[in-house]
Amino acid sequence: MLKDITIGQHFPGNSPVHKLDPRIKILLTVAFVIVLFVASNLVGLLCSLLFIGVLYAVAKIPLKTILKSLKPILPIVLFTAILNIFFVGGTPVFTWRFITITKEGIVYAVIMSLRIVGLISGTSLLTYTTSPIALTDAIERLLKPLAKMHMPVHELAMMMTIALRFIPTLIEETDKIMNAQKARGAELDSGSIKDRITALVPVLIPLFISAFRRADELAMAMECRCYRGGEGRTRLKQLKLHASDFVSALVCAAVLTAICFTKMLPVIF
Amino acid sequence: MNNETEKEMITAHDLVFRYNEDGRPVLNHVSMGIKKGELVAVLGANGCGKSTLAKHFNAILLPAGGTVIVEGMDTADEDKLYDIRQKVGMVFQNPDNQIVATIVEEDVAFALENLGVPPQEIRTRIDEAMEMSGIFKHRHKAPHNLSGGQKQRVAIAGVIAMRPDCLVMDESTAMLDPRGRERVMKTVRKLNQDFGITVVMITHYMEEAAQADRVIVMGGGEIKMEGTPQEIFSQVEQVKALRLDVPQASELCLELTKAGVPLPRGVITTEECARLLYQLLA
């Protein structure tokens, strides 16, 4: 059952979105997130969503996947929308006893909902179209300037790689331990929430102990292969920027800037 | 004399080691040598110090007394640390706990990346290493999708990519199924015979030890027996006294000899034993 868990799902593909340099993709995603907050008007947000929609279409990621990724955040969207509708002051359009709904409230609720949807779908596009290794690699390169300020950038990237490597191994192990405890009569799937949480303790303790043992052995194996931190290290796969990367980056940057300027448009609502 | 020392891959002299300052020594004045190109098996019951000895071969552990010399370099010399680790590669027991990267070829490249080898050269060397250990066709897979034997061969490739002169296998077949074990052993024999890599193999399987050029038997932190597999395994009683088994063929031959069946000494492989019995019955 635990095997169904996928973290940082990645859909391999050959589209221009997939092929774009991961560093540029990360930077553009950050820019997109900023634009979502800067363009605080309906037109701008709708344009941003349209833009992401087009990118999804180019990446050939089915609509179903996008909706699936949005499903878990639906409660958050609804909650924010309701809060905004009731608690933002302004011109009242509807009053009933102590409840007043204002025009500003409705507009703000819609804006907030669109913004959250945009945030999730934008960042998901990054993980959907970039392999985890490419991502960690790109993060290491992008943060390299910080290494001069003695930030442990390489160590961070190495930790991410090892974490990604061990997720399937640890999931498998959790499954094994759960079965072992079930064989000893542990009831993991029944009882009240409190019972279930207590029942997890005998699963988590062996899991932690074994994880530490694994870490110890892995550290030794890494030492045996001459690991000595990030200094003087080379990489098998070099990230190289191509002309096409610059073109894509420029196009996206232009679109994002244009979206920012929608703020200048006369307010429709 | 000089010629003699050049042929030595690893020499341990009067080696003493304890895990705790005032604990009992795990290695008690051990002196031994590994020659270049040899395939040596180290046997011993649990806790006899064989893994501890292996960890001295590439300076993971440093001796508390005595010296370990790897191709003329003292393992206690900190400046030579990475040269020694490059010369003597080590493969451990649990295949899962020695693979670092999420893709096979990236993992094989790990040691070379650490050593600062240029990318083009990394490419040629890892392709070569993956060919040698027979995992080239799996190079784009994720390690958790491989079998235990395949993972262990990925670990071997990761070490071979450093082009070491010696490969130390610390019970590397212990967690594998018979088929995986067979494939790993085949790879190791190939590396030893075709590429001249010295192999030190720590094992619990007598059938694996029977394939070695030389067998070292340890007990209580000391070397108890040393010799060719034939010499060692024909002394069934002595081996058993050290809480170890002998290959089934040796034991059968001993019992038959005791019962008065005329068989030569030093039969250790199943095939040889079967051949002799056929001859006897014919």
Number of strands of chain B: 10
Our Rg estimate of chain B from Cα atoms comes to: 20 Å
Q: Strands of the largest sheet of chain B, in order across it?
A: 6-7-8-3-9-10
- Describe the largest sheet of chain B: 6 strands, mixed
Largest interface: A-B, 28 and 40 residues
Fraction of residues in helix of chain B: 40-55%
How would you classify the quaternary structure? heterodimer
Inertia-based shape of chain B: globular
What's the architecture of chain B, going by CATH? Answer: 3-Layer(aba) Sandwich
The tally of structural domains of chain B comes to 1
Helix and strand run of chain B: HEEEHEEHEHHHEHEHEEHHHH
Sheet with most strands: strand arrangement of chain A: 1-2
- Rounded to the nearest angstrom, the distance between the terminal CA atoms of chain A is 49 Å
CATH topology of chain B: Rossmann fold
The string of secondary-structure elements of chain A, in order, is HHHHHEEHHHHHH
- Report the sheet-strand fraction of chain A: under 5%
Q: Tell how many strands the DSSP assignment of chain A holds.
A: 2
Q: Please describe the biggest sheet of chain A, giving its number of strands, its sense, and whether it closes into a barrel.
A: 2 strands, antiparallel
Strand content of chain B: 15-25%
Number of helices of chain B: 12
Structural class, from secondary structure content of chain A?
A: mainly alpha
